[in-house]
């Protein structure tokens, strides 16, 4: 009988010792694991390198197609205007050489784009200047769009750290001033907990 009690006592002690070791291991794991906080600077750097990378870091994946859609507009306008700028520039040079009073050269006229052959040299010059201006503007709009997506990643990276829990609330309620006996309107603003509530009167 004594051997039986000793056996049970040994089992209880071993179980208690194993539980103690398990709790110690859990505590050490909690101490060694570092909580990774959201860093808005990482979102800024990533979006500045690759468009949409900062939005992916903020876990706003639905914004990535919007970012590339916005950037695609000035990029496509750049290629369109640059293509027509080169055509009108060539056409202007060909028409200019063909209209020289001394030693005119009309060998380049056959290579002018068919849509430009019927235009005068003044019209071709105006189109050339317009396409060059629009090409330069498209570069500017592309840079602005890139900067906006960087700003979006930065702002929403900072907003990730704000408290958006259910403790944030604002309640409106009618109020009667007991001194002047005049009605009013007040609202309760709850920022964190019940200790931070403020009552503001609006009359």
UniProtKB/TrEMBL annotation:
Lineage top rank: taxon: Bacteria
All copies of domain DUF5683, residue ranges: 37-192
UniProt KW keywords: Membrane, Signal, Transmembrane, Transmembrane helix
Cited InterPro entries: DUF5683
Signal in keyword set: yes
Segments crossing the lipid bilayer: 61-80, 138-159
Signal sequence range: 1-22
Protein name, entry field: DUF5683 domain-containing protein
Species this chain originates from: Hydrobacter penzbergensis
Species classification: Bacteria, Pseudomonadati, Bacteroidota, Chitinophagia, Chitinophagales
């Amino acid at each position: 009988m004594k051997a039986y009690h000793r056996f049970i006592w040994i089992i209880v002690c071993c179980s208690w010792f194993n539980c103690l070791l398990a709790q110690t291991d859990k505590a050490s794991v909690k101490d060694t694991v570092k909580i990774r906080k959201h860093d808005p600077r990482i979102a800024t750097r990533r979006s500045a390198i690759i468009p949409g990378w900062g939005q992916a870091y903020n876990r706003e994946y639905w914004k990535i197609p919007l970012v590339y859609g916005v950037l695609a507009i000035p990029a496509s306008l750049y290629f369109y205007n640059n293509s027509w700028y080169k055509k009108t520039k060539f056409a202007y040079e060909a028409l200019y050489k063909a209209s020289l009073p001394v030693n005119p050269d009309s060998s380049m006229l056959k290579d002018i784009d068919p849509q430009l052959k019927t235009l005068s040299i003044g019209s071709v010059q105006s189109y050339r200047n317009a396409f060059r201006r629009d090409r330069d503007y498209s570069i500017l709009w592309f840079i602005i769009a890139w900067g906006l997506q960087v700003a979006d990643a930065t702002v929403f990276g900072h907003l990730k750290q704000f408290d958006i829990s259910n403790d944030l609330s604002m309640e409106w309620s009618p109020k009667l001033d007991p001194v002047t006996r005049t009605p009013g309107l007040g609202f309760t603003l709850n920022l964190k907990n019940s200790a931070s509530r403020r009552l503001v009167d609006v009359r």
